[in-house]
Automatic annotation (TrEMBL):
Enzyme Commission identifier(s): 3.1.3.11
Name of the protein: Fructose-1,6-bisphosphatase class 1
Entries under CDD domains matching the protein: FBPase
Residue span, Fructose-1-6-bisphosphatase class I N-terminal domain: 5-196
Binding site for substrate: 118-121, 210, 243, 261-263, 273
Catalytic activity: beta-D-fructose 1,6-bisphosphate + H2O = beta-D-fructose 6-phosphate + phosphate
Location within or outside the cell: Cytoplasm
Protein family membership: Belongs to the FBPase class 1 family.
Cofactor binding summary note: Binds 2 magnesium ions per subunit.
Gene3D superfamilies the UniProt entry points to: 3.40.190.80, Fructose-1,6-Bisphosphatase, subunit A, domain 1 (3.30.540.10)
């Protein structure tokens, strides 16, 4: 049967909807193009003058890395040019960019939120990093964007995905009909279907959390972490601990092998550290589409009504049974 490229795959999906105008296809092509450019830079990061800090802080108060800025510019540029978007928002910008006000490129109906480079503190150490994206469709028909366009929960995402720049580079995405993974074949410069219909194992043996925050965790989370370490033959505990510190990489490993990732609230981050619109929502959509679960511990991530662009929420995500177990601990100890 041979290989199937991302472009061929998207066109085939699109052909099932004869009324579709191909805008969504273009959008994913733009994301794939920007991803290839970032991949090229990430791969030669040690050679080029691209490693290290930019010398500026972003809106999050974090030190921006040169690759944060490079990735942000390339995704912004590709998404603006494609002409199918009306709004773009990135971790690296305080405000989202309303494209309905500009006349240079055509304006479309899609709103894209993205984390151009996830795990950027790991870049200089050659550790896997990623990009995360979330796509909504505006609900107002045309003209200026309205509150209703911004007040959409994660369940209303039309697509979401991530790219992992790892030992190989992969693009994983969903449009709400399952999850498919594509591996970049550098010899032809194409993402090729390698993981059709990805499913997260319903349970696993890996837990992933920044345990240096242990003293700041709630009793429920402390008790759950003790549960992970306790001996039990039936559930194969103690579990094993893995924490890369790149959300995309930790999430991807758990997608493939089964496991759970937690970033609960701490003293430094009373609502958790991770951002709803461009980290938690897209990964939650993928997790649910792959048969997994994503929760704050009290409610599904996908049901949170956003209040602000850079809003942070606690994230517990991964294998269905493992996330349910944390929810049980939270219910029991709160
Ligand atoms: P980003 O690099 O996009 O700012 O995201 C950083 C996030 C995420 O990738 C990672 O899982 C988490 O921060 C790690 O935080 P800690 O260093 O506090 O564990
Ligand atoms: Mn950052
Ligand atoms: Mn991130
Ligand atoms: Mn980032």
């Amino acid at each position: 049967m041979g290989i199937q490229t991302l472009e061929q795959f998207i066109s085939k999906q699109q052909s099932k909807f004869p009324t579709a105008k191909g805008e969504f296809t273009h959008l994913l092509q733009a994301i794939s193009l920007a991803a290839k450019m970032v991949n090229r830079e990430v791969n030669k990061a040690g050679l080029a003058d691209i490693l290290g800090k930019q010398g500026k802080q972003n809106v999050q108060g974090e030190e921006q890395q040169k690759l944060d800025v490079f990735a942000d510019q390339h995704f912004m540029d590709a998404l603006e040019k494609v002409g199918d978007c009306c709004y773009l928002a990135s971790e690296e910008h305080e405000e989202g960019i309303d494209l309905t006000h500009q006349t240079f490129y055509p304006v479309g109906k899609y709103m894209v939120y993205f984390d151009p480079l996830d795990g950027s503190s790991n870049i200089d150490a050659n550790v896997s990093i990623g990009t995360i994206f979330s796509i909504f469709k505006r609900v107002s028909p045309e003209g200026p964007l309205t509150m209703a366009d911004f007040e959409q929960t994660g369940r209303q995402q039309v697509a979401a995905g991530y790219i992992i720049y790892g030992s190989s580079t992969m693009l994983v995405y969903t449009t709400g009909k399952g999850v498919n993974g594509f591996t970049l074949d550098p010899s032809i410069g194409e993402f090729c279907l390698s993981h059709p219909n990805l499913l997260i194992p319903s349970t696993g043996r890996t837990y992933s959390v920044n345990e240096s925050n242990y003293n700041q965790f709630s009793t429920a989370i402390k008790q759950y972490l003790q549960y992970c370490k306790d001996m039990d033959k039936e559930t194969q505990r103690p579990y094993t601990s893995r924490y890369i510190g790149s959300l995309v990489a930790d999430f991807h490993r758990n997608m493939i092998q089964g496991g759970i990732y937690l970033y609960p609230d701490t003293m430094a981050y009373p609502n958790g550290k991770l951002r709803l619109m461009y980290e938690c929502n897209p990964l939650a959509f993928i997790a649910e589409q792959a048969g997994g679960r994503a929760s704050t511990g009290l409610m599904p991530i996908l049901d949170i009504m956003p209040e602000e662009l850079h809003q942070r929420v606690p994230l517990i995500i991964g294998s269905d049974k493992m996330v349910k177990m944390v929810e049980w601990f939270i219910h029991e100890y709160s």
